[in-house]
Amino acid sequence: MSSSKNSAPSSPTRLSRRTVLGHIAVAAGALAMAKQRAVAQALQASGLAQAFRKDFRVGVAVSNQTLDQQIAPDLDLIAREFNSVTGENAMKWGVIRPDGFTWQWERADRLVDFARKHRMDLLGHTLVWHSQIPASVFVDADRKPLTRDALLARMREHIDTLVGRYKGRAWAWDVVNEAVDEDKGWRHSPWHDIIGDDFMEQAFRFAHAADPKARLLYNDYNMHNPGKLAFLANVLKDYKSRGVPIHGVGNQSHVGLTYPDLGQWERSIATYADMGLKVHITELDVDVLPPPANTGADVANNAAYSRQIDPWPDGLPDAVQEQLADRYETLFRILLRYRRSVERVTFWGLHDGVSWKNNFPVRGRTNYPLLFDRQMRPKPAYQRLMKLAGGKR
Ligand code: XIL
Question: For residue 114, what are the contacts with CB-CB under 8 A and spacing of at least 6?
């Protein structure tokens, strides 16, 4: 017997009470979602991201603490000021798989849900890095170093699982982080030394297979270093000519008041833009303290504390506050000139009180690298950027 008669839609007059209630519930749900979206948009209508909406996305790194404790004032400020988020630590191998293998999704899931709720773009950070990763990843059950094939399989499984879980929800991924050792070429790391020069290419291929629509980035610090730039530009040209799926570079931009040379910084942005790559400023902060000998961002380095290099434990003098505002304005003026290629600018932390720069490259200093102070009030640098966004360029 044909079932067409039985499955024909019932006429409106014959809708059961249950169906009607069902429709009402769906409509109410849609209304609640629309209301939530409107509130999110209204919140965003006032902030930094809104001010630069025609130029690039403005993002922030969200700390584990904010995610774990769901700190409401932090989350509210993030929702108001930014339209993209990166987990400061939440998705790193050693954080999401503390023993190297077992997944702990809760924190990263919270970040992804927060981004979706507030219609923000989500940045995945990071898939292949030598740091914040347990040594167990690189050895077999007998603690012997893995073979190339075994490590490639582990890399693929990690990328498939993580990128796969957030497929369609992560806008972009920092696929490989910090693979270049200043002007010496490939950095020595278990990834490089076990797999070989093509470990980076393989990571991009795996990530693309796991989510073909996600933007894939190579991310590094000291991108202004001419030696690093020359080496990387060569690698990326070769990738483009062979169709390795890479869409852009992440320039971390952990800068200071007087370094790097912004001519070099701009040259690096221009070089990648000219190659047709997108540029993301992924971890912006401006260290205002006197630098010890090492000024890079290699998280393995830490210099000794002395009071001399921690001059302002009780507050930033106005003159330095002004220098910070000047520096941010100069950086953003450059970025605005490249806004066709610069897709996003992300600050590495929400406010001065939680910045990693209080502990790097020297532990226990009082630093002031961000746009919001320790009471989460906007600083003069914030006002300066808002003025720049609103003014004639
Ligand atoms: C830093 C975090 O901010 C710290 O909380 C953590 O202890 C160490 O890592 N380059 C990167 C980031 O790509 O992941 C680093 O973040 C800073 C340097």
Answer: 62, 67, 75, 78, 85, 120
pLDDT in tens, 1-14: 333 334 444 444 55
Report the distance separating Cα 318 and Cα 320, nearest Å. 5
pLDDT band at 299 (very low <50, low <70, confident <90, very high): low
Question: Quick check: helix, strand or coil at residue 247?
Answer: coil
Ligand 1 center–CA 34 separation, angstroms = 36
What pLDDT does 28 receive? Answer: 74
Query: Is the preceding omega at residue 260 within 30 degrees of 0, hence cis?
Result: yes
Lookup: tokens for 364:
């226990």
Instruction: Express each pLDDT in 157-178 by its tens digit.
Output: 999 999 999 999 999 999 999 9
Region 231-240: what's the mean pLDDT? Answer: 98
Q: Which residues are catalytic?
A: 178, 283
Question: Which atom of ligand 1 lies closest to the CA of 348?
Answer: 3
CA distances from 313 to 88, 156, 208, 319, 373 (A): 25, 46, 46, 16, 13
CATH (one of 3.20.20.80, 2.30.42.10, 3.40.50.300, 3.20.20.140) for 48-391: 3.20.20.80
Please choose, from the candidates 309, 277, 269, the residue with its C-alpha nearest in 3D space to the C-alpha of residue 291.
Answer: 309
- In percent, the amount of the chain with pLDDT more than 90 equals 84
Q: Which of 45-49, 249-253, 291-295, 301-305 has the lowest mean pLDDT?
A: 291-295
Ligand 1 shell residues, CB under 6 Å: 88-89, 177, 252, 283, 297, 299, 356
Q: What pLDDT score was predicted for residue 11?
A: 46
- Distance in Å, CA 89 to ligand 1 centroid: 7
Rounded to an integer, what distance in angstroms lies between the CA atom of residue 269 and that of residue 231? 15
Q: How far, in Å, is the centroid of ligand 1 from the Cα of 285?
A: 12
Domain range summary for the chain, segments of one domain joined by +: 48-391
- Please report the atom of ligand 1 found closest to the CA of residue 254: 18
